[in-house]
Amino acid sequence: MIAEEYKQMLGKKSVIRELSEYGTERAKEIGYEKVFDYSLGNPSVPVPQAFTDKLIELAASKNSAAVHGYSPSLGISSVREKIAASLNRRFGMDYEKEHIFMTSGAAGAIAHALRSVTKKGDEVMTFAPYFPEYNPYVNKTGAVLKIVPADTDGFQINFPEFEKMFSSKVMVVLINTPNNPSGIVYSTETIERLAAFLTEKEREFGHDIFLISDEPYREIVFKHVDAPYTAKYYHNTITCYSFSKSMSLPGERIGYLAVNPACKDAKLIVEMCGQISRGIGHNCPPSIIQLAVAEVVDLTADLSVYETNMNILYRALTGFGFSCVKPGGTFYMFPKAMEEDAGRFCSRALKYDLILVPADSFGCPGYFRIAYCIPTEKVERSLEAFRQLAQDYK
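RE: above sequence
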């Protein structure tokens, strides 16, 4: 008999993926340049040349076993050392390689982090709007995901609701900053308040509470935006990172988990991750990609185009009458739909070949997400379609 649980998931496919597939087919019909596909967060800027050069150099190496062989379960030692050193330089931390575990992207990091600090029935809290894949990430571990309603005034943490919902069953708080889908960056004030609350609850309940910080957009922060490094503010922080967005490498599936050295079980958690891999078939990311990113670990792609695109869209959409909190980073924007039913609004947008994602699955009905990681000239050409869509509601 096949697994009924996963069979049922076929009826709940990602709306983002379905819209992206629609956009691909529509482009075949009328031409790519005529379809304004804002559905999928696929980086649009080139990979840093230094990464490409290093990859070519490694591929030509005569030491085939080192480049193409299995890496150790926790990742290549020299790679972990370089990542720890980079975090220490940039954020004033004191990581050692023993605090770093190499993963297949941020998703792989979250999978290991959750399993290392929860058991069946524990609660994990996160904040709307949130990445929809958190549902299977958390619930398939046996833990239970609890969603705190959004603070739609600014999309920082809704502390009154959070504090009301918090109980002794909560073992993990999962945050995503800079945030997908809102584009908002949690401020230092927000992180400090969250850290103080969790510290207080640890004392009250007599057990550890972990903060898992999902940070694949950490390098995409716009000018003059306050963007604290979360682990500096709370001892039991597990940082989950991916090079997918910073270096435009989503298909290479490379990232890491970093446990704050101030956590008393930091090194033990990393060692445990090697055993968690045995149960979920993770078994370390490709050696050649680990080695390549380690050589350029402080570099990013040219990410400036995302702020350019954001400013063009924000000025235009607010001018057309859309309500939107201005993003502080990422390549997402999260306007309010011009009718209560965002699904119907996004369906109406298809008339203008605008592919937008309704935000019901992000835990924020009535909003929609724009992934503006597309060429700037296409963003500019899409403005007329947005204007016509807004005009439909006047």
